[in-house]
Fold:
Amino acid sequence: MSFFTSRLGAACLAALVVASPLAAQDLELSIVAPAGAGGGWDSAARSLQEAMMETGNARSVQVLNVPGAGGTVGLAQFVQSAKGSSDQMLVGGITMVGAIITNGAPYDLTNVTPIARLTGDPLVIAVPASSPFQTMDDLVKAIKADVSRTVWAGGSAGGADHILAALITEAAGADPSKVNYVAYSGGGESLAAMLGGQVSAGISGYGEWQGQIESGDLRALAISYPEPIEGIDAQPLKAQGLDIELVNWRGIFAGPDISDADKATLSDAVEKTVKSDKWQEILTARGWSDYYAPSDEFTTFIASETDRVHEVLTSIGLAK
Structure:
């Protein structure tokens, strides 16, 4: 073999290496959490960061917080910056779906690439320890008697908490458009309203209020998950005669117009991560349920969730 042929072969090999998809263990990622530090999306992003790096499914992962408007500010920035990118991902969930519809946002989840559904966080319906409502049935009777006097505390308008309050109001036989819902910017603010006796009942991710439930400062009446969860005494709404289930799901997305090869690499890295022992440890520690679904299944799920959320938000006057 001549020197020229040898050099040409080496050059071709180098070109092939450059053109081939990035291996998962070589990934250097940024994950956008479209909310402030400490919330559910931030926790999901940082948990995935920790698990991907510890399991060797990414070389480095950086989390970027872009809060605002129920996640729609972060979504808009991500759509514009991550087009065709193999090294950027975004955390989102049901509350983002609601915010997109409520705010008439310019972008929705069809503008990004679903990679995987990750977790399902049970929502809890709770009351202050001093509340006269001892059971979910007590709360339902109060709503039925006078919907306006039942004041709810929860997260952003149109988010998962608001949606669940509307579904419970409707199941109680009252007009969901008249639900008396006070939106707070975070679990801490709504918790303060609960502990201060400013509201009748509240809704939040179970993990956010778990400490106050276990201490006895709050009384958990029900969870929105379809099935009982080990370690949680409160029973599902369905088990208490209300045909309601709502999972506060979170998933991970890539930018628009990524290549099939990059999508496969990211999907493989995430799948290996969520099937690891490390991820199971994180789920247990945070009280999350494993709600994993791969890209195609997740894409179908988002479409059906969007229709369902739109229907509920229309019933409470937040969508048309």
Summary: Residues 70 and 99 are 5 Å apart (CA to CA). The two ends are 72 Å apart (CA to CA). The longest helix spans residues 295-315. The longest strand covers residues 113-128.
